[in-house]
Design brief:
The chain is of the alpha/beta class. The chain contains nine helices and six strands.
Length: 256
C-alpha cells in the first residue's frame, strides 16, 4: 500500500404462440424449463455494478481522495490520520489523499485561493488515471445559497465524470458529529442534489444518522467540529461498507 498525501440490454421475449394456443383451448399448463446456467441472485446490471465496484476497491487500486479537514485528518492525535488514511491503509490502496482544511466545492478555505476549491483541484489531476475517486465534503460550504452550491457540485462532479470515465466516482456528504451535524442539513441536501444531477453515487452520513447524540461524545474531537481517532476509525468503517454497496440495491449483490 502506498499513500501520498497532498497537504494542500433488455430481456429477450419468449415465443408466445404455444402459450396463446393453450389459453384459447382453456388448458392450464405449468412447464419447468431447464436453465443452461445457474441463475444469479442479482439482476445483470447489478452484477456488473458489483463487479466494477469490487475492482475499484481491490488492493492495489489507484485511489484519489479530494476533501477538506476530515480528509486531512484534523482532530486526530497526530492531526494527519483521518478516515482516508485509515481506509487506504486497511484496503491496500495506492492512494493520493488531498485534504485541505476549510475548503469545499465553493469555499476556498483560509488561503482564500479559488484554486483550493474542489473543481480546480480535480482539473489539476487530469493526468491521473485513478480506479476510484472519492470527493468528500463539505460542511464548509455554508457561505453560499443551497441553489448555488448544488450547481457548483454538479459542475465539479460532472467534470470528474468526464475527466475519468473509467473510474468509479463517489461523493460523500457532511459527516460531522452532533451537535455540529445539526447545522449541515441544507448543505447535505445541496450536495446530494448536485451529485444526483451529475449521476454520481452519494454516500449520505446525515440521512443515515451515522453520528447521533449518543455516539458523538465518544467520537468528537475536543473542538466539537472534527473527529478524534476513534471517530475517524468509525467513519472509515462506515464509508467502507457504503462503498461496497455502490451500484447495488440488495445485500446479495454487494461487492465481496
Amino acid at each position: 500500500m502506498s499513500t501520498r498525501s497532498n497537504g494542500g440490454a433488455g430481456r429477450a421475449r419468449r415465443p408466445r404462440t404455444v402459450a396463446i394456443a393453450l389459453a384459447v383451448l382453456g388448458v392450464a399448463v405449468s412447464v419447468a424449463l431447464p436453465s443452461s446456467a445457474p441463475r444469479s441472485s442479482c439482476p445483470p446490471d447489478q452484477e456488473r455494478a458489483s463487479a466494477a465496484t469490487a475492482r475499484a476497491l481491490a488492493a492495489g487500486s489507484r485511489v484519489l481522495v479530494i476533501g477538506d479537514s476530515y480528509t486531512r485528518g484534523r482532530g486526530s492525535s497526530d492531526g494527519m490520520t483521518g478516515w482516508a488514511q485509515m481506509l487506504s491503509a486497511d484496503s491496500g490502496w495506492d492512494s493520493t489523499i488531498d485534504g485541505r482544511p476549510g475548503t469545499g466545492y465553493v469555499n476556498p478555505g483560509p488561503g482564500r485561493s479559488r484554486s483550493d476549491t474542489y473543481l480546480p483541484r480535480i482539473v489539476a489531476d487530469a493526468e491521473a488515471d485513478p480506479d476510484l475517486v472519492i470527493v468528500q465534503g463539505s460542511q464548509n460550504d455554508w457561505t453560499v445559497s443551497e441553489a448555488d452550491l448544488r450547481r457548483r457540485v454538479e459542475e465539479t462532479l460532472g467534470q470528474a465524470v468526464a475527466q475519468w470515465p473509467r473510474a468509479l466516482l463517489v461523493a460523500i456528504g457532511p459527516s460531522a458529529p452532533r451537535p455540529r451535524a445539526d447545522s449541515t442539513g441544507s448543505i447535505d441536501a445541496a450536495v446530494r442534489a448536485g451529485a444526483r444531477s451529475a449521476g454520481v453515487p452519494y454516500i449520505d452520513p446525515v440521512a443515515e444518522h451515522w453520528f447521533t447524540s449518543v455516539n458523538s461524545p465518544a467520537y468528537a474531537a475536543s473542538d466539537g467540529e472534527h473527529l478524534n481517532d476513534a471517530g475517524y476509525r468509525y467513519l472509515a468503517r462506515r464509508i467502507d461498507t457504503a462503498l461496497r454497496a455502490v451500484g447495488t440495491t440488495s445485500p446479495e449483490c454487494r461487492a465481496r
